[in-house]
Amino acid sequence: MELSLQYWYLFPISILIATIAMSSGIGGAVFFSPLFMLALKLEPKIAIGAALATELFGFTSGLIAYYKVRLIDFNLAKSILIFSVPAAIIGTIYSGCFSPTILKTIFAVGLLFIGYQIFISWRAEERQKYEFEHKKEFELHHESELTDIHGNVYHYTVCNKGMGRTFSIVGGAFLGMISVGLAELQEYLLVARCKVPTAVAVATSVFSVVVTVLVASVGHFYEFIQDGGDALNQVVNIIVFTIPGVIIGGQIGPKIQKSIPEDIMKMSISILFIIVGFFMLYTLI
To answer: Are 73 and 204 contacting, i.e. CB atoms less than 8 angstroms apart?
Structure first.
């Protein structure tokens, strides 16, 4: 195996992506996968494997930061993981059954769908209309309560558990196949639909994704090791720069999570998803 400095520029890019991902709860692979496919011209399978490995380290770094401030709802995470982990295993196993064009199409359509859903759910006027109502309601009637290290108390109820299970299965399967889906779908459900406090939703989503990504990335790396050759060499030469970057960004993101207006963050990311999704579909024409 020959190490190369060819991808050195991925180090600062990875810091930026991980900072955005950890502050918003969006999976970093949603940025890395199109970056690897479009900019580096990697085959989807290699790009997805490298993105999953990178995301694993970035989310683990962010997980440590969120764990320190006690913002993770482990009971909620458990209800996600019992569905997402088996689905991720199945998605990883069957990812090789699809052609690169199909994987790119699924990825692009998924980005468009998630971007659109976040966009319509986080319009400022809708959030302002319901925010006060839900806050008062949860002060009186709530299923869950969490107190962070600073003494802030969060009251919330996870709504529509059937949809939550479905999103865990679909998100886990997509994560195994194309490296994205679980974090985005869970955040849409918890924050946009159930009005779970953003800090709790993001921290819990990060924990759930770390465990699920760990399972999915092991499967992909096993295939790379079995195949050996150029694929494994490419992945190693990429992650040797992306992993240190996301570890740094994973510590920065949680610190700035509360300083960025939620509407600006969500609307910007949703627009970015839509742009990347359309561009990826364009490259398939």
So the answer is: yes
For the chain, list the strands marked E by DSSP: 144-147, 153-156
Domain that holds residue 140: 10-100+121-263
DSSP 3-state percent helix, strand, coil across the chain (nearest 5): 80, 5, 20
Distance CA(102)–CA(104), nearest Å, equals 5
Handedness of CA 124, 127, 128, 129 (dihedral sign): positive
Q: How far is CA 3 from CA 15, 42, 132, 245, in A?
A: 21, 17, 55, 17
Q: What is the pLDDT of residues 90-107, one digit of tens each?
A: 988 887 777 767 877 877
Q: Which residues of the chain have pLDDT under 50?
A: 125
In a domain, 115, yes or no: no
Residue 116 lies in a domain: no
Predicted local distance difference test score (pLDDT) of residue 77: 93
Residues with Cβ within 8 Å of 82's Cβ and at least 6 positions away in sequence, in order, are: 168
Residue 3 lies in a domain: no
> Can you tell me the distance from the alpha carbon of 152 to that of 71, in angstroms, rounded to the nearest whole number?
10
Residue 40 counted as domain residue: yes
Share the mean pLDDT of the chain. Answer: 80
Residues 279 and 127 sit within 8 Å (Cβ to Cβ) = no
Instruction: Locate 1 and state its tokens.
Output: 């195996």
- Give the integer Cα–Cα distance in Å for 28 and 32: 6
Q: Which two tokens stand for residue 184?
A: 């985005």
Q: What is the pLDDT of residues 147-169, one digit of tens each?
A: 888 888 888 888 888 899 999 99
pLDDT in tens, 167-190: 999 889 888 887 777 887 887 788
pTM, rounded to two decimals: 0.77
- Residue type at position 78: K
What residues does 146 pair with on adjacent strands? 154
Residue 280 DSSP class: H
**Total tally of structural domains belonging to the chain:** 1
